[in-house]
Amino acid sequence: MIFITGASRGIGQLLLKHFQSQGQDCHGTYFRSDPLNNEALSRVDVRSFNAVSSWVNESLIDKTDDQLVLINCAGITYNSFAHKADMEMWRDVLEVNLIGSFNTIRAILPHMRSRNYGRIINISSVVGQKAVPGTSAYAASKSALWGMTRAIAIENSSKNITVNNINLGYFDIGIIDEVPEEQLASVVKEIPVGRLGQPDNIIKTIEFLLNNGDVCGSSIDVNGGLF
Length: 227
Hints:
Layout: E1 2-5, H1 10-21, E2 26-30, E3 41-43, H2 49-59, E4 69-72, H3 87-115, E5 118-125, H4 136-156, E6 161-168, H5 181-190, H6 199-210, E7 219-222
Parallel strand pairs: 1-2, 1-4, 2-3, 4-5, 5-6, 6-7
Helix pairs in contact: 2-3, 3-4
């Protein structure tokens, strides 16, 4: 059974459709965006542990033997120079991107541990490595996932649970659509491979991590050589 947060758009939606096409039992969250009439989606505020826990527990009623996978895609961004930042909007980025990811991990881990199996993948970003003006909230939330991933991986590796992190570069999917054309051209020039990332390569990386029990506590860069 596969749980995907932020599954109504962008990368989360891509992964939900991919795994559904394979006949997988999928459960996804949405909050602010349109759920697109997909019965696999539930409105869940990942900032609330109680909401996330209820979603996980209700999805697992009468499911005792399923191997569980969690992919944390839910995320928001807020752009502002630090000296002008709105503190509530800045804090909300961390609440969704970091604490929301921890909430889902905390909710599902007991179920994974009881099954002696689990795969957890957090979606991070090259922005946590590459200094980009105005992205302090997003960069803080995404780079914090690296340390959290390693700590939780060590805690659970003896239970056949792997926890890994993917640092994505600029891909032809999701919020990249909101970037003005001139700015987008400038972004592409910085990418060594000379193009935006291909969404299918995100799927390939996810599949690699799901099928390799020896990769645990890692952060994998998938960014076209951009550092």
